[in-house]
């Protein structure tokens, strides 16, 4: 079957994504409660007991809320780099020593037929990462919590079959919103979150003829709307591509429910 994946939840209230092949299954982050993760996996015909590991992008609460509980309940290995582990130790409770796995940024691991590579990103965390997944000729990239899309990030996620890309906020909605200015400044900074405009501009540089679908992810509930994100990203892409250039299909993610399974081999 190759790679299939499902975004269980995405946004400021919690993030988790499951990526699977026939021989390897991993969870990226566990920012939802253990109960919610169990429920959403069950709705998609899967149990957390089938997972081989949990991969952590960074230590913010919306990415690790259920991490300790899920890891302990199902005796799962947890992979993160050393600096992230230093922060996790203060937040997630005791993890069995054999399940505390250090994955150096840039390292490639294998879970059955699923290969996983981490890469560094710009965000206000200890050592945040994104992940690329490979199976034969297939490639899935997950890139959220980006202050900006650097040339190194673009190089890593380019030529993906499917891309999960942050489209966190509309700049004007954020500026006019209720957050204090210091929080707004953090979100708008190079270690904050990617705006709709920045997501669209960056997408032009990484999208190739191979890229089928792009999931717009990690949307702010206060400073974005799914329709607005899709419209803005599409507008940025249209302004920069020739009429006959390839365009990937834009897909939605949700803070309160899971996406359907996406099979990369499907057209």
How much helicity do the residues have? 25-40%
Strand content: 15-25%
Overall mean pLDDT stands at: 96
Task: Give the topology string: H per helix, E per strand.
Answer: EEEHEHHEHEEEEEHEHHHEHEE
Q: How does the helix and strand content classify structurally?
A: alpha/beta
Helix tally?
9
Q: Characterize the main sheet.
A: 7 strands, mixed
So what's the overall shape? globular
Report, as a whole number of angstroms, the end-to-end distance: 13 Å
Q: What is the tally of beta strands?
A: 14
- Using only C-alpha atoms, the radius of gyration works out to 17 Å
Oligomeric grouping of the chains: single chain
Strand order of the biggest β-sheet: 6-5-4-3-2-1-14
Weakly predicted, low-confidence segments: none
Explain what you see:
This protein has 267 residues and is α/β, with parallel strands linked by helices. Helix content is 28%, strand content 24%. It is built from nine helices and 14 strands. The chain has a seven-stranded mixed beta sheet. Strands 7-8-9-10-11-12-13 form a seven-stranded mixed beta sheet. Helix 9 (226-240) links the parallel strand 12 (213-217) and strand 13. Helix 8 (196-206) packs across helix 9. The longest helix is centred in the C-terminal third of the chain and has 15 residues, at 226-240. The chain is globular. The two termini are 13 Å apart. The mean pLDDT is 96.
Please give the structural blueprint.
Elements: E1 4-9, E2 16-20, E3 25-28, H1 34-43, E4 53-55, H2 61-64, H3 67-74, E5 78-80, H4 82-88, E6 100-102, E7 108-111, E8 114-120, E9 129-135, E10 138-143, H5 151-157, E11 162-166, H6 171-176, H7 181-188, H8 196-206, E12 213-217, H9 226-240, E13 249-251, E14 262-263
Parallel strand pairs: 3-4, 4-5, 5-6, 10-11, 11-12, 12-13
Antiparallel strand pairs: 1-2, 1-14, 2-3, 7-8, 8-9, 9-10
Helix pairs in contact: 8-9
Catalytic activity: 3',5'-cyclic UMP + H2O = UMP + H(+); 3',5'-cyclic CMP + H2O = CMP + H(+)
Function: Counteracts the endogenous Pycsar antiviral defense system. Phosphodiesterase that enables metal-dependent hydrolysis of host cyclic nucleotide Pycsar defense signals such as cCMP and cUMP.
InterPro entries: Metallo-B-lactamas (IPR001279), RibonucZ/Hydroxyglut_hydro (IPR036866), WalJ/YycJ-like (IPR052533)
